[in-house]
UniProtKB/TrEMBL annotation:
Pfam families: RelA_SpoT (PF04607). InterPro entries: NT_sf, RelA_SpoT. Coiled coil: none annotated. One of its GO terms (biological process) is guanosine tetraphosphate metabolic process. This is RelA/SpoT family protein. Residues 51-182 form the RelA/SpoT domain. Gene3D superfamilies: Beta Polymerase, domain 2 (3.30.460.10). It comes from the Bacteria. PANTHER family: GTP PYROPHOSPHATASE-RELATED, RELA_SPOT DOMAIN-CONTAINING PROTEIN.
């Protein structure tokens, strides 16, 4: 194949490659959103995913000059690609699971071109570039945006942590400059930065585990409240940070191991609360949150402390005491 033939074929097939990448992005994000709920995709992905076609000049340079492939057009697997950037190394696995799932196999055949975990095991004393690279090749019959995707059309998908991405951005321009990167000083500096990133990734993972463990009692209560709210008030229950603020404010009053049972029993006995909450949920924000049910429990069992520590508008608390038929403490 000549360079001119390459250009003509690429010009014809560019819309197919773009449609294939858009199809992959759509399907991965859709499956990922379901798997990480209630975490939102906007929070989980630290950089928006943007499928990008390689420039024609870049493809020619790689296919005919830097690599000199035997089959220049077909051997270049990254004519289009995208990058998923997440916070933690454990988050990388969540994206990989979506790509490798049985559901996804009807859309593509995948291969892992790079896997940082395998590379670490193979060369434990080296600290080098880290990332997971997949090549996804279309199966027959895929259509997106009215465009038929040619079978075997490839797309590169990279998955990195935010720190790995920063390192890659820093060193990208020197990848194809062997005389520069071969210098011992340059190699050592890059290796040190990679070692620091790997250690920081591990600290991030440990910190997240510690945070999740510390928040477990509060999250258990909130999950219980969400279920009770959904079952007795209605769907569309809120999930705003005011719920965490409420449980954090009153955590000292919620330490009993059977506190969940006590809250459930209280609400069962005071079932009129659900009607009051439902009447106000559309016009008063706090009443659309599951934490409002905890507020009734606290106001009934610990009125003085509930009043003294109340972190929101006092008018909402006054309504709660009124519904309970109690006088709000001064």
């Amino acid at each position: 194949m000549t360079e001119d033939q390459f250009r003509k074929r690429w010009d014809t097939e560019k819309p197919v490659y773009q449609a294939w990448a858009d199809f992959i992005k759509h399907n991965i994000e859709q499956a990922l959103a379901a798997s990480i709920a209630p975490t939102t995709l906007d929070y989980f992905l630290k950089i928006p995913v943007k499928p990008r076609l390689k420039l024609e000049s870049t493809l020619i340079d790689k296919a005919f000059h830097r690599k000199q492939y035997q089959n220049p057009y077909d051997d270049v697997q990254d004519k289009v690609g995208m990058r998923f950037v997440v916070l933690l190394t454990s988050d990388i696995k969540k994206v990989c699971q979506v790509i490798e799932s049985e559901e996804s196999k009807k859309f593509w055949v995948f291969s892992r071109d790079r896997d940082y975990e395998i590379e670490r095991l193979a060369k434990p004393l080296e600290f080098t570039y880290q990332s997971v690279h997949f090549v996804l090749k279309a199966t027959a019959g895929n259509v997106f945006g009215g465009i038929n995707i040619l079978e075997h059309t490839p797309c590169e998908v990279q998955i990195r942590t935010l720190l790995q991405h920063a390192h890659s951005e820093l060193t990208h321009d020197t990848i194809y400059k062997p005389k520069t990167t071969a210098q011992p000083g340059v190699k050592r500096t890059v290796a040190k930065s990679m070692a620091l990133i790997e250690a920081t990734d591990e600290f991030f993972e440990k910190a997240m585990q510690d945070i999740e463990e510390a928040l477990k009692p509060q999250n258990d209560i909130l999950n219980l409240l969400k279920k009770i709210y959904t079952d007795n008030v209605g769907t569309g229950v809120g999930d705003e940070q005011s719920n965490q603020l409420l449980t954090d404010t009153y955590i000292d009053l919620l330490q009993a191991p059977d506190v969940g049972e006590k809250i459930s029993k209280f609400l069962e006995e005071k079932s009129f609360i659900y009607k009051r909450v439902n009447e106000r949920r559309a016009s008063k924000h706090l009443f659309s949150q599951p934490g409002i049910l905890l507020s009734y429990y606290l106001a009934s069992k610990n009125p003085a402390q509930t009043r003294g520590l109340w972190p929101f508008e006092i008018d909402d608390l006054a309504l709660i005491f009124s519904d309970l038929g109690d006088r709000m403490p001064d």
